[in-house]
Design a protein that fits this description.
β1 and β2 form a beta hairpin. The longest helix is centred in the middle third of the chain and has 27 residues. The protein contains 17 helices and ten strands. Helices cover about 50% and strands about 10% of the residues. The strands form three sheets. It has a five-stranded mixed sheet. Strands 4-10-9 form a three-stranded antiparallel sheet. The N terminus is likely disordered. By secondary structure, the chain is an alpha+beta fold. The structure holds protoporphyrin IX containing FE (HEM). The site of protoporphyrin IX containing FE has 25 residues, from α12, α13 and α17. This is Cytochrome P450 YjiB. InterPro entries: Cyt_P450, Cyt_P450_B, Cyt_P450_CS, Cyt_P450_sf. Pfam families: p450 (PF00067). It comes from Ktedonobacter robiniae. Belongs to the cytochrome P450 family.
Length: about 400
């Protein structure tokens, strides 16, 4: 077997593996997980968007003793219409594009504050110094977490995402502990905001209603935890992965610096080329076929977004990072009723972060050859360290 020497080779090997599966076993059953793996664009897009046949509601299909008991499992991402539709309408009243746009100057300020710490040094770890702290600070501010509780809030968030696929008993304990501290914290915060509403997301969530229905306490907690889990590591990965793309195509840094209007397209291409979310699960509601395979009612499916986004049948020269790619109907934020609610926020944060880096880190950029530590968990794709130098 080939010796994998560097992270780059590891990443190339990962994508080669997906290409092979698309070509030879596009719909294949994994007995370890008792789940179907789907690798092609058309199949992944179908499964994500046909919610009548492919359910998100794991609680309907997994016996109680095997269920993930976190508040996420009862949040909108693991719910089907019509309940999903109603709850999404409620949370959309609070989590509005206008509210996200209002964050722009704060995102700018936080980004610049973080870059102030490193610009003079001529080097930074993009993950540690910018891509990690930016989204978590924004979410904490959006939720109205007081400054004194921010350090704790970061620990809770870390405990949820520390799972590397190699979680120890201790990690699990820490994660359970974090979950219960967080549930207590949010319960108290809801009480405070009910009594004294403020101009923040939690207050807006408490007020939002459809047909006279408000979110229950459990649903409110589920949504806040979902924002924390769904919105942090993914956005960190988008920023980190975009820098990895630019490192592979060094001429593009200069081009983007000169033509800033290309940046949104470059970020969409980064979402396709190195997708922060690897896969999403679904469960077959009825018996159906995908390709030549018969899927039984109740079986689990993994829709491999990361593979679909490199499918040559959908994206010509799929293994090339082309910042002006058009069309670019990538599945990085999903498809259909569960399409990422936080996409405008993630796009805005990544655009501001990259723009500030282009402004303040002059000349050509170089990512060190040191180990980058790809995240090993099953659902996200990114790296843990990204040492970058530039011309001072
Ligand atoms: C680059 C960053 C991000 C990526 C790649 C991403 C990706 C995704 C994907 C693929 C889904 C679909 C899940 C499914 O089909 O089952 C999703 C849903 C969701 N995302 Fe994101 N996300 C990102 C950032 C965010 C942020 C910043 C937030 C909020 C602060 C957020 C909140 C959500 C929520 C609430 C859902 C569930 C929507 C629903 O079920 O109706 N995401 N995201």
């Amino acid at each position: 077997m080939m010796q994998i020497k560097t992270n780059r080779e590891e990443i190339v090997a990962l994508y080669d593996g997906f290409r092979q599966m698309r070509e030879t076993q596009p719909v294949s059953f994994n007995p370890n997980f008792q789940a179907w793996n789907l690798y092609r664009y058309d199949d992944v897009a179908r499964v994500l968007s046909d919610h009548a046949t492919f359910s998100s509601e794991q609680n309907r299909f997994i016996p109680a003793e095997y269920r993930d008991s976190s508040p996420i499992s009862s949040s909108i991402v693991r719910m089907d219409p019509p309940r999903h539709h109603k709850l999404r309408q409620i949370v959309s009243q609070a989590f509005t594009p206008r509210m996200v746009a209002q964050m722009e100057s704060r995102i700018q300020e936080i980004t610049n504050g973080l870059l102030d710490q490193v610009v003079a040094k001529g080097e930074m770890d993009v993950i540690r110094d910018l891509a990690y702290p930016l989204p978590i600070t924004i979410i904490a501010e959006l939720l109205g977490i007081s400054t004194e509780r921010r350090a704790e809030f970061k620990q809770w968030s870390d405990a949820f995402v520390s799972g590397d696929g190699e979680a120890t008993e201790e990690d699990m304990q820490a994660s359970m502990q974090a979950m219960s501290s967080m549930v207590n914290y949010f319960t108290q915060l809801f009480e405070e905001r009910r009594a004294h509403p403020q101009n923040d997301l939690v207050s807006a969530l408490l007020l939002a209603e459809v047909d006279g229905e408000h979110l229950s306490n459990e649903e409110l907690i589920g949504f806040c935890v979902l924002l924390l889990v769904a919105g942090n590591e993914t956005t960190t990965n988008l920023i980190g992965n975009a820098i990895l793309c630019l490192d592979e195509y060094p001429g593009e840094v200069e081009r983007l610096r000169a033509q800033r209007d290309l940046l949104p397209k470059a970020l969409e291409e980064a979402l396709r080329y190195y997708s922060p979310v690897r896969l999403q699960p679904r469960w077959a509601v009825t018996e159906t076929t995908i390709g030549e395979q018969r899927i039984e009612a109740g079986q689990m499916l993994f829709a491999w977004i990361i593979s679909a986004n490199r499918d040559e049948a959908q994206f010509p020269e799929a293994d090339q990072f082309k910042i002006e790619r058009e069309p670019n109907r990538h599945l990085g934020f999903g498809r259909g009723v569960h399409f990422c609610l936080g996409a405008p926020l993630a796009r805005l944060e990544a655009k501001i972060a990259l723009n500030a880096m282009l402004d303040r880190l002059p000349g050509s950029w170089h990512v060190s050859d040191a180990p980058l530590f790809p995240i090993k968990n099953m659902s996200t794709f990114g790296i843990k360290k990204l040492p970058l130098t530039w011309n001072k």
